[in-house]
Write a structure and sequence with these properties.
The chain has a two-stranded parallel sheet. By secondary structure, it is mainly alpha-helical. The longest helix has 15 residues. The chain is globular. Helix content is 66%, strand content 1%. The protein contains 28 helices and two strands.
Length: 512
C-alpha cells in the first residue's frame, strides 16, 4: 500500500479562498474588504461580484477601459476557479469573452473546458453541438473525455458507453481517468455488477488503479451496505504496494460503518484517516472529520479537531460553517453561539450560510423569537440588506412550528419571490401552509402560492394543475409535492456535500 498525499484539489490562492463563498455572499463587501484597504487587482474585483445572476463581463470590460492588460493565464485561472466553485455561468462568460473579445488562441484544454461549461449551463444538446462543430484534429483525449464526463454527469448511460467505446477504438484509454468516470456513473446508477467488469478491463490493459478508483469502489460497497465486500477490498488495497490509498478511503469506510451502526469500527477508521492527513490536505480533512465525528456523537472529538484547525493559523468560512453546524447537531447551542460570535468579530468575507445555519437551527428548535432577533440584528448592522430565500424559508418553518400560520404563509411567499436557481422550499412547511389556507377557505391565496411555485419553476405544470384541482375540491394531496426536495437539509450538510463533491469530481476535472 502506498499512502497517497496531495490528492485534494483545494488550493490556497487568493481567488480560491474568496470564490468559495461567492455563491452565498451579499453584493455589499464587508468593511474589511472595501476598495480603500485592499490591493486592487482583477481577482479582487471579481471576488466582489457576489451576485451569481450578475454578468461578470462588466468587471472585465471596465478593467480594459482603465487601460489595464489581462493576461490569458489570469483568465484561465479565473475560469477554472469559477468552475470549481460551481459558478458555471460566469466561467462560461469568461471563456467566451477570452476568445471572442480578446481574440486569444485557444488550446485543446480550453475547448474541453468550454464543452464542459456549455453542458452545465445550457445542457447536453448544446454541448453535443459544440463537440460536432470542432474539427476532427481537435477531438483529442481531453475533448472526448469532457464529452464523456458531460454524459456521465447527466447520467446518459448509453451515450456515455458509446463515447467510451469510441475512445477505446481511438486508443484514448491510456490511464484511469475515463474508467473512473464510468465507474462512478455505474455506482450512481447502482449497476454494481459493471464495476468489476470495468476494473478487470483496467487490469488486462495494465492500467493501475488510483485513489479515485479505489474510493469509488469503496463507495459502491458502502452504498449497498456490503460491509464484508468493503472490508475485503480495503484489506486488499492496504496490502498491495502498487495501489495508492489516502485518507478519503478511510472516511468512506467510516461512513459505511456508521450506516451499519458499527460505531467502534467507524471510530477506528477515523483514526486511520487522521494518520494520512498531510500538510496540504489538513484544512479540508479537518472539515470532513468535524462532520463525521459529529455523526458519531463525539463532541469531545469535534472540539479536538477544531483546535487542530485553529492551529493552522487561519480560519476559513467553510471551517466555521462545519463546526457551528456540528455543534448545533450535538445540541451544543452555547458552543455554536460562542463560535458564531468569534466569526462575526473577524470575518474577512461575509458568508451568509453561517448565520443562516444558526437561524435555521433556532427555527427548527422552536426558538422563533431568537431567530427573528438575530435576523434583525444582521440587517441593523448592515451585514444584509434583507433576508434571502434561505433565511425566509427557515423563518417560515419557525412560524409554522410556533403556530403562527398567517406569518408562515406570508414569509414563505417572500422566500419564493427571493429564490435563486437551486433553491427549493421546505415541503413540510409548504404542505402545512396549503392545508392552513384550505382550512381558512382561502382558496385564492392557496392558488396564488402554487402559481408562484410554478412561475419559479419549482413545480411542473402538471403538478400545478393537479394541485389546483385538489385545492378547488378542498383536498390537499401533499404527495403531489414529492417532486420538490425541500430545503430542509441544513447548510452544514450542503457544505459537507460540497467538500465531497470536490473529491469525487477531480478525476473528471483532469480532462480540462
Amino acid at each position: 500500500m502506498k499512502h497517497l498525499i496531495g490528492s485534494n484539489p483545494w488550493t490556497s490562492s487568493v481567488i480560491s479562498r474568496v470564490l468559495r463563498v461567492l455563491s452565498y455572499s451579499i453584493q455589499t463587501p464587508s468593511p474589511t474588504t472595501s476598495p480603500s484597504n485592499a490591493t486592487d487587482s482583477l481577482q479582487i474585483r471579481i471576488s466582489r461580484t457576489g451576485d451569481p445572476k450578475a454578468s461578470i463581463l462588466l468587471v472585465l470590460n471596465q478593467w480594459l477601459e482603465e487601460g489595464k492588460p489581462i493576461k490569458q493565464s489570469v483568465l484561465r485561472s479565473v475560469i477554472r476557479q469559477f468552475r470549481r466553485f460551481r459558478r458555471f455561468k460566469h466561467a462560461l462568460e469568461v471563456s467566451a469573452w477570452m476568445t471572442e473579445e480578446m481574440n486569444y488562441d485557444i488550446s485543446i484544454g480550453d475547448m474541453a473546458l468550454r464543452l464542459d461549461l456549455i453542458s452545465k449551463v445550457h445542457g447536453v444538446d448544446q454541448a453535443e453541438k459544440y463537440f460536432d462543430s470542432l474539427p476532427d484534429t481537435m477531438r483529442t483525449f481531453k475533448v472526448y473525455g469532457a464529452l464523456l464526463n458531460c454524459y456521465a454527469h447527466n447520467r446518459c448511460l448509453e451515450k456515455a458507453e458509446d463515447t467510451m467505446q469510441n475512445m477505446r477504438e481511438l486508443g484514448f484509454l491510456i490511464n484511469a481517468i475515463s474508467y473512473n468516470v464510468m465507474l462512478n456513473l455505474y455506482r450512481q446508477l447502482r449497476k454494481y455488477e459493471k464495476l468489476d467488469v470495468v476494473m478487470q478491463e483496467m487490469k488486462e490493459k495494465g492500467i493501475k488503479h488510483d485513489a479515485f478508483t479505489n474510493n469509488i469502489r469503496l463507495n459502491a460497497y458502502a452504498s449497498s451496505s456490503h460491509i464484508e465486500g468493503m472490508e475485503k477490498f480495503l484489506t486488499k488495497t492496504e496490502n498491495d504496494v502498487e495501489i495508492s490509498i489516502d485518507w478519503h478511503a478511510y472516511i468512506v469506510a467510516a461512513n459505511a460503518y456508521l450506516k451499519a451502526r458499527l460505531t467502534e469500527k467507524a471510530f477506528q477508521m477515523l483514526n486511520r484517516a487522521e494518520q494520512l492527513v498531510t500538510h496540504e490536505t489538513r484544512r479540508h480533512a479537518y472539515e470532513v472529520f468535524l462532520t463525521v465525528y459529529t455523526n458519531l456523537g463525539r463532541k469531545d472529538e469535534v472540539y479536538r479537531i477544531w483546535k487542530l484547525y485553529g492551529n493552522l493559523g487561519k480560519f476559513l468560512n467553510s471551517g466555521y460553517l462545519c463546526v457551528i453546524s456540528s455543534l448545533i447537531k450535538l445540541n451544543d447551542f452555547d458552543g455554536a453561539e460562542k463560535i458564531l460570535a468569534e466569526w462575526e468579530s473577524g470575518f474577512s468575507v461575509y458568508d451568509v450560510r453561517i448565520p443562516n445555519v444558526m437561524i435555521s437551527a433556532y427555527c427548527k428548535r422552536g426558538f422563533i423569537e431568537k431567530a427573528e432577533a438575530y435576523t434583525n440584528s444582521l440587517i441593523e448592522r448592515g451585514l444584509i440588506k434583507e433576508p434571502d430565500a434561505f433565511t425566509r424559508n427557515s423563518l417560515a418553518t419557525g412560524y409554522q412550528i410556533d403556530g403562527q400560520m398567517a406569518k408562515a404563509v406570508e414569509t414563505l411567499k417572500k422566500a419564493i419571490l427571493a429564490s435563486i436557481s437551486g433553491w427549493k422550499p421546505n415541503i413540510d412547511t409548504l404542505a402545512v401552509c396549503l392545508e392552513f389556507l384550505k382550512g381558512e377557505n382561502n382558496i385564492v391565496a392557496a392558488e396564488e402560492l402554487l402559481e408562484l411555485l410554478r412561475v419559479r419553476g419549482l413545480v411542473s405544470t402538471d403538478v400545478y394543475d393537479r394541485f389546483v384541482m385538489n385545492i378547488s375540491d378542498r383536498n390537499v394531496d401533499a404527495s403531489a409535492l414529492d417532486q420538490i426536495k425541500g430545503d430542509d437539509e441544513t447548510l452544514d450538510e450542503e457544505s459537507t456535500k460540497d467538500s465531497w463533491r470536490s473529491n469525487r469530481s477531480v478525476a473528471a476535472e483532469l480532462y480540462v
